[in-house]
Specification:
By secondary structure, the protein is mainly alpha-helical. It has helices at about 1-25, 35-40, 55-65, 70, 85-90, 100-110, 140-155, 165; strands at about 40, 50. The chain has a single domain (about 30-165), classed as Cytochrome c-like domain (Cytochrome Bc1 Complex, Chain D, domain 2, Orthogonal Bundle), CATH 1.10.760. It has a two-stranded antiparallel sheet. A hairpin with a 6-residue loop joins strand 1 and strand 2 (about 50). Helix 3 (about 55-65) crosses helix 7 and helix 6 (about 100-110) crosses helix 7. The termini are far apart.
């Protein structure tokens, strides 16, 4: 009886361990894997670049998760799954949002994808911080780090970042 119960507990432990193992993400990147090449990101439309530190990227991730991930988890846009934070979506916007300065500008004063209309009353921004309290205390550095995090993710996660319902 004792051995039967022990065997049952061991078997349940193995099953539980296997379950946890297969829940783990397989594309996790360690800080040591974030080389200078990966962290070299476009700063502006003129083609200038900057190597962001691991600490800047980590802070950008924390701020993104606190302020943006509710609607943009894994780079998708929950309110419009056709337009996410994937590189091709950022590049296709008018004006293009495929560099840090452009994303920071967007976070200050968002416009529709075609650039025709301001949407600061619908999308969290510095301009609408009275409506969206999470934006109130964000500094210029915070916005730059969020932008750097967004631009780094496709390099780390590949098509999983911003892939939306059509990819996964």
């Amino acid at each position: 009886m004792f051995f039967k119960n022990l065997l049952k507990k061991v078997l349940l432990g193995v099953i539980f361990s296997l379950f946890l193992f297969f829940q783990a993400p397989f594309n996790t990147v360690l800080a040591a894997d974030l080389t200078d090449d990966l962290r070299t990101l476009p700063v502006n439309a003129a083609g200038d670049t900057k190597v962001y530190s691991i600490q800047e990227i980590a802070q950008g991730e924390r701020t993104f998760n606190a302020a943006c991930a509710q609607c943009h988890v894994r780079g998708i846009t929950k309110t419009n799954p056709n337009v996410g934070l994937a590189p091709q979506d950022l590049e296709g916007a008018v004006p293009s949002r495929d560099n840090v300065a452009a994303l920071v500008d967007y976070l200050k004063n968002p416009t529709t994808y075609d650039g025709e209309f301001e949407i600061y009353e619908l999308h969290p921004s510095i301009r609408s911080a009275d409506i969206f309290p999470k934006m109130r205390n964000l500094t210029e550095t915070d916005l730059e780090q969020i932008a750097a995090y967004i631009l780094l993710q496709p390099r780390v996660q590949g098509e999983r970042w911003g892939g939306g319902k059509y990819t996964y």
